[in-house]
User: Which sequence fits this backbone?
């Protein structure tokens, strides 16, 4: 499989506790994944951090953004003073609307399915055998704005998995290797009616992960890092990818087996790469909704600068399609690549790849002037005093805007054991040319994702806005 077959971004700090003791889990960055970052279709920031696996989250900060344009410019940092968060500027204060309409669904951040992960936003999804009332509801499915398509863990589906029809390629079972920043998912492609809130995407391909024997995992897939084929590994029962693309791979998988993330598996084994038509690729459910199919708005509440045990937001489907999803003229739109990417600058350094990713539970960027925690916390940032940082985002049309966010020492944030909603957790990735604005950036904001409809003959090109 070509290294270009990378289909999402997720970075996690995790806290599994074994026999009451803190257990450390250290992951490296596979060479194949590093190579994938150099491919034209790379749409993830590959962050596999050494981290404290036995800690629980505590604390948080805020962020703010300027919606006005700026001409280039670089980011910078300034100390807010003190060892706590009292001196930090207040973050954005937009409150989510009530999730009462058919085009809305509540988004929950709390201790989650196994109390291992902070900043994991989840919703409830129902999947049905296409065209029937034979359905199963799955809770704790992660909302990921930087990947595309629904992926459910086989164990969460249980025996219902066997009722969902498999997709085939020339008579062979179709499977997919989906690479994320913290590893890969592997499993079959199946058809389902997908229901979220009051919206339905009928008869679309989804991925069921972990339903094939580990012996079937292609070596090229395993090279992307640890398996993410269980609820414990993901921190959720699945991943709902609702980014700007209607498919998870597109032309790369449709035109050539050598650049495809999909595999044909005769009798469920001996899997080999295969080209897959767009109609059979794992599909972003939003693109198949009847009306509210041109985008989403992720609305997370403002949270305390000291963090919170939980937070509840709203995922709104459609932009400008209903009375509850208008987009104000005051927000700034950033036209993106087909995968939701932009460029920008930070601290005088040009950024090759910037993106807004609810599937990352921290803000990830490179700044050698900020102390790293080291030890169990690896490359997470531990500044002596809280920081307010600035960066510039530049869209594909060369329009720019400035964003601000706060960073507090991870050793302060991650030692309380009770808070799972944080908005100033940050860490470093080896690349100096990427900025991943993860879930901490979303608190107190309405973040809009406009679907790429031009690729299907429409007029709307992909964008993000806030």
Assistant:
């Amino acid at each position: 499989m070509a290294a270009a077959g990378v289909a999402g971004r997720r970075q996690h700090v995790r806290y599994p506790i074994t026999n009451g003791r803190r257990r450390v889990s250290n992951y490296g960055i596979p060479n194949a994944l590093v190579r994938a970052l150099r491919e034209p279709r790379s749409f993830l920031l590959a962050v596999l951090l050494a981290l404290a696996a036995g800690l629980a989250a505590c604390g948080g900060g805020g962020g703010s953004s300027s919606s006005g344009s700026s001409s280039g410019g670089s980011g910078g940092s300034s100390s807010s003073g003190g060892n706590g968060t009292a001196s930090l500027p207040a973050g954005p204060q937009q409150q989510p609307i009530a999730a009462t309409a058919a085009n809305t669904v509540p988004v929950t951040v709390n201790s989650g399915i196994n109390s291992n992960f902070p900043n994991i936003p989840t919703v409830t999804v129902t999947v049905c055998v296409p065209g029937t009332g034979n359905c199963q509801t799955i809770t704790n499915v992660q909302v990921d704005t930087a990947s595309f398509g629904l992926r459910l863990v086989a164990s969460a589906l249980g025996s219902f998995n066997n009722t969902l029809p498999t997709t085939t390629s020339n008579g062979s079972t179709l499977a997919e290797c989906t690479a994320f920043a913290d590893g890969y998912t592997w499993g079959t492609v199946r058809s389902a009616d997908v229901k979220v809130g009051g919206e339905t995407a009928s008869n679309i391909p989804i991925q069921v992960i972990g339903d094939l024997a580990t012996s079937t995992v292609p070596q090229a897939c395993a090279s992307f890092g640890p398996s993410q084929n269980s609820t414990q590994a993901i921190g959720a029962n699945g991943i709902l990818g609702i980014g700007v693309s209607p498919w998870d791979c597109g032309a790369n998988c449709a035109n050539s087996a050598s650049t495809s993330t999909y595999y044909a598996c005769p009798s469920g084994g001996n899997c080999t790469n295969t080209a897959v038509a767009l109609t059979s690729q794992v599909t972003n459910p939003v693109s198949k909704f009847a009306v509210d199919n041109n985008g989403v708005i992720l609305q997370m509440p403002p949270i305390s600068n000291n963090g919170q045990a939980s937070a509840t937001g709203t995922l709104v489907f459609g932009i400008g399609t209903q009375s509850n999803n208008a987009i104000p003229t005051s927000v700034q739109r950033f036209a993106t690549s087909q995968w939701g990417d932009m460029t920008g600058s930070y601290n005088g350094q040009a950024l090759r790849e910037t993106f807004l990713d609810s599937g990352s539970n921290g803000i990830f960027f490179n700044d050698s002037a900020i102390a790293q925690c080291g030890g169990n916390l690896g490359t997470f940032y531990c500044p002596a005093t809280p920081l307010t940082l600035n960066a510039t985002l530049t869209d594909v049309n060369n329009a720019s805007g400035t964003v601000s966010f706060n960073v507090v020492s991870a050793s302060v944030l991650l030692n309380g054991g009770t808070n799972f909603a944080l908005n100033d957790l940050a860490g470093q990735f080896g690349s100096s040319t990427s900025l991943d604005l993860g879930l901490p950036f979303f608190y107190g904001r309405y973040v809009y994702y406009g679907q790429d409809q031009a690729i299907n003959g429409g007029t709307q090109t992909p964008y993000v806005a806030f």
Q: What stands out?
A: DSSP finds six helices and 27 strands in the chain. The mean pLDDT is 83. The first strand starts at residue 17 and ends at 18.
